[in-house]
Amino acid sequence: MKDHLRTALLLATQGVPVLPLRRGKLPFGNCPTCARNACGGRPNMRTPGPCVCPRPCHGWAAATTDPQALNSTAWAPVWQHATAVAYHPGGAGVTVVDLDDPAAIAWARETLPATRTVATTRGEHWIYRGTMQSANAVRPGIDIKSLMAYARWLGSGTGVTAALTDAVRALTVNEPPAARRAPQTLSVPLSGQRGACPHRTPSFLERGIAMAEQSIAAASSAVHATVYRTFLAVLSTHGRCGCLTDAHAARLFTAAQAKGESPRHCTDAWTNALITLGLSHV
Question: Which of the two ends of the chain, N or C, has the fewest CB atoms closer than 10 A to its terminal CB?
């Protein structure tokens, strides 16, 4: 459709790599020349840009900022059947936190830094400046779309784009291997950390701990990874101002042990999270 092509061309001039989507919010299927990736991709879909084939046939890797390619005769049939425009967030230098339902949005508002927000059909896209690995289902109703992924273009949204932070990166981090685990001890979690306190109200930390407890309690699988990611997220947001205490850590440990985690695993996960964020050392 002409409106979709017009949008794509405008975004391309702004340096945003774009591609058309068909019904179902899916990229167009491989063309005959590239069926089963016979052409080898670009290469093997690991860098952004169009295939050497004249049609957009490799999902996110078909995204381009070349107006001549987008407006070419070869692409014309594709745009006639397009139902939406998508873009490659990583190629545009951003990360999209795709929040798919009200519960995910509520969690993000309590846990992640405020940033530019775009309304979607069922939820919101939170846009951060910077790139990272993409991952699906990092939490219930939450996907990360950045490198090697595509997201629908739904407008520029509202708010100021914040820089990508550890709190967002932590969503895709799995627990480090057992070799990095520390002894089974728990002292004051962050003694000596006295940075500027970012808490908007005295209840901000309390809500963060409560949301973390709920996150652990809601885990139906991959409990080890959920516990570690939750500890990492809490420490990313609250770990540098000196407000976390043994009492807060104990609440999180209790939630984890209620899901079957051992005290040793809780201590290891907490310590590894501190090390990952540079708040402690092996």
Answer: C
Cβ atoms of 273 and 227 closer than 8 Å: no
Structure tokens at 256: 């984890």
Interval 143-175: pLDDT, tens: 999 988 899 999 999 999 999 988 898 888 765
Predicted pLDDT at 105: 96
Q: Tell me the whole-structure pTM to 2 decimals.
A: 0.63
What gap in Å lies between CA 54 and CA 31, rounded to an integer? 9
62 vs 30: CA distance, rounded Å: 11
Tokens of 171: 């969503």
Report the candidate in 187, 205, 198 with the shortest Cα–Cα distance to residue 280.
Answer: 187
Task: Catalogue the long-range contacts made by 193-200 (C-beta closer than 8 Å, 24 or more residues apart).
Answer: 193/239, 193/240, 193/241, 193/242, 193/279, 194/241, 194/242, 195/240, 195/241, 195/242, 196/241, 197/241, 197/242, 197/243, 198/237, 198/241, 199/238, 199/241, 199/243
pLDDT of residue 80: 87
φ/ψ of residue 87, rounded to 5: -145, 160
Listed residue (81, 37, 30) closest to 55, CA to CA = 30
CA atoms within 13 A on the CB side of 198: 12
